[in-house]
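Deviation from plan, reported transparently: glycyl-adenosine-5'-phosphate complex.
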Amino acid sequence: MPNPQPSLDQITALCKRRGFIFPTSEIYGGLHNCYDYGPLGAVLLRNIRNLWWDEFITKRDDMVGLDSQIILHPQTWVSSGHVTAFTDPLVEDKVTHKRYRADHLIEAWLAKHAEEPKWQDFVVENLDNEQMAEFIKKHSIKSPEGNEVTEPKDFNILFESAIGAVTGEKSKVYLRGETAQGIFTNFKQVVDSTRVKLPFGIGQIGKSFRNEITTGQFTFRTLEFEQAEIEYFFDPEQQDWQQLFKQWQTQMWKFVNETLGVDADNLRWRQHTDQERSHYSKDTYDLDYRYSFGWKELWGIAYRTNYDLKQHSKHADQNLEYIDPQTNKKFFPHAIEPAVGVNRLALMVLTDAYWQDTANKRTVLKLKPNLAPYQVAVFPLLKNKPKLVEQAKTVYDHLKNHLAATWDERGNIGKRYLYQDEIGTPFCITIDFDTLDDESVTVRDRDTTKQERVKISQLEKYFQTKLG
Ligand code: GAP
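Because the crystal trials were delayed, the predicted structure below was used instead.
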């Protein structure tokens, strides 16, 4: 059985208390759906990014990386279809004029009626705007303020900006709504400048922006977020897309379950309905995670066919076809796209690792050591004993060349353990009076709280085994 899921309030409070995630610009009252990552959150994000890059780019011979711009030529978004089709169904509170997503209001209503068998298999994603309007009317669904809402209308969520400093001479641009378009627009340059041959993929990590209207899901859905996306190009006459699609699904599951250590009971696959599938996709699945607020999309995989390369070829009047080096066959490769949000991965690992250890009256983040901001914490038993501090510093200075190590001398040992448990540090090392005689230290395991004595000279080897 997986741990009982923590509430979102528990996660949010721990993130703020321990410096993982803060509401952005809090001194000015914050900004809706925007968050900053504190000292520990920044390391957690970096660890996730590095693991993703390592597994999907560095270690694969069929993948290359990319770092394209946030601001692309505005025509990109016309060609890709985002200017017309990148929309959310919005309603407006008739009194306060606040806007809400129609599908989210219906989801909240369904959550309240979850016990009724009639609604258990109901899929909101199957409804178009007209059907949502009918549903809202029939069930008298109100805004969170309790007022009537208008009928759903499509609202484009691309983020507009402008190039140019002089009013009247500014030209409209978009902050990218997905990193994927930078991959498609660079496809030909990557083929021409490197030694890639089909099948191969291009991956990149970077910020994307969407004018999202949501409330109360912490970092799950934000205006600014980071995506890690792959376009895997292949010749559909040479390879069966369904087989490739399945292989990618296996890789995605493995990354979440094994590399990030997330409980498989909290993961599931869900196929998109025809109604909800994006305009560019022939088939889409979501790898869902059981967040504190229910099963939600963590990572999508779509079969984008050759839609994007063809669109850009047509609109840019450039031939983006691939020429097979063996047969000279010219064609637009098809693409399978595994696309994940780094922030959703972070919220998932924080949720999955959260453990209320009632027996020991403590809160623990059981993060895998490859994710933990610190892998070991080093303490002198007492901070006012120079000999202990000096010995502890020697151990710390040595270990930090090999591991993510932190120093702590505040408060008593018990408090230091509780603090390190809450930030997910797998091991704590205490240098005490015996150390001065026997050159051994006490190593305490975060999850079991068991302690053992280890020789200082053996520490590096000990952690190599323990941390992998
Ligand atoms: N290129 C395809 C694409 O962008 P998507 O399902 O819209 O597909 C991919 O986004 C992933 O990006 C999602 O599975 C999710 O993890 C993340 N994501 C999307 N919108 C987000 C938002 N507003 N805040 C945080 N993460 C988001």
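The first helix runs from residue 8 to 17. We consider this an acceptable substitute for the interim report.
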